[in-house]
Design goal:
The protein is of the alpha+beta class. The protein has nine helices and six strands; from the N terminus they run αβαββαβββαααααα. Strands 1, 2, 3, 4, 5 and 6 form a six-stranded antiparallel sheet that branches.
Length: 265
């Protein structure tokens, strides 16, 4: 029963691995504010962040999330400066020590640097790290939503229409940059999302069927097939209804404005 979601996770690991081998745009410091923790630690504009506390940094989100997680404690940044790798310890400010309206915990501005390809061994470790980042992100979504770190719009579920729009943006970015990294990571992200969703203990999904198996193991006897079938049928109808609702939502309130829908609001 878990082989389907497991295949999604394996596919995601392979896709992340390929993406890191072809090369991800480096996370580069575009600005270092005077007097900020970054400036006091010796970070400079143009530095490219490769790792934070030994964890590979593959996109700005990974750096930002780790900084917020470790706020108030010292972290080690591995940066590339003029071809030389430097380890620089820096202490991100904790909540209350800075004004989030004007500056973040480190006091830096982030941008994209040149593409950096990883060797297969590094890419394997980075692939597993990416998987964990996305899985832990799903677990943190409710608390991030309640704390205001993300908006309801950013956390909203999407249908196949929304997924196709996001995939289209990733494909366009990959074609423009002549680098398949964005498209590969997007495909990996979808695989992780499918695997996690399918493991939810909802009737009609693999997670729901696994839940029934666990209940049967505890009870020591089978659940009547008719009752189980009825529960899965109800669950399937609810999922179909949710899918229809999300499709309508993505048409009425698309992630990317639809030309024929312009001016309707």
């Amino acid at each position: 029963l878990a082989s389907g979601p497991g295949s999604n996770f394996i596919a995601a690991i392979v896709l992340f691995w390929l993406a890191l081998i072809v090369g991800a745009p480096a996370v580069q410091l575009d600005a270092v504010n005077p007097g900020s923790p970054a400036a006091q630690a010796g970070l400079q504009s143009g530095d490219m962040v490769l790792e934070i506390d030994g964890r590979m940094v593959m996109n700005p989100g990974m750096l930002v999330n780790t900084v917020y997680e470790r706020a108030g404690t010292t972290v080690d940044l591995l940066v590339l400066r003029d071809g030389e790798r430097l380890t620089i310890p820096v202490r991100p400010r904790a909540v209350g020590e800075y004004d989030p309206e004007t500056e973040g915990p480190l006091g830096i501005g982030l941008g994209e640097g040149p593409r950096i390809g990883r060797n297969p061994v590094e890419a394997a470790g980075g692939s597993l790290e990416s998987m964990w980042q996305y899985i832990s992100l799903y677990g943190r979504l409710p608390s991030m939503l309640m704390s205001g770190q993300i908006t309801a719009q950013e956390a909203r579920p999407v249908s196949i229409i929304g997924i196709s729009q996001i995939a289209g943006m990733a494909a366009e970015s990959s074609v423009t940059s002549r680098n398949p990294y964005q498209l590969l990571t997007m495909a990996a992200f979808i695989s992780v999302a499918l695997g996690l969703t399918n493991l939810l203990p909802i009737p009609a999904l693999d997670g729901g069927r696994i839940l029934f198996v666990l209940i049967e193991a505890i009870r020591g006897r089978r659940i009547e097939p008719e009752r189980e079938g009825m529960v899965h049928l109800i669950g399937m109808l609810m999922l179909l209804g949710l899918m229809a609702f999300l499709i309508v939502q993505d048409i009425v309130n698309p992630l990317i404005p639809i030309p024929w829908a312009a001016g309707r609001e």
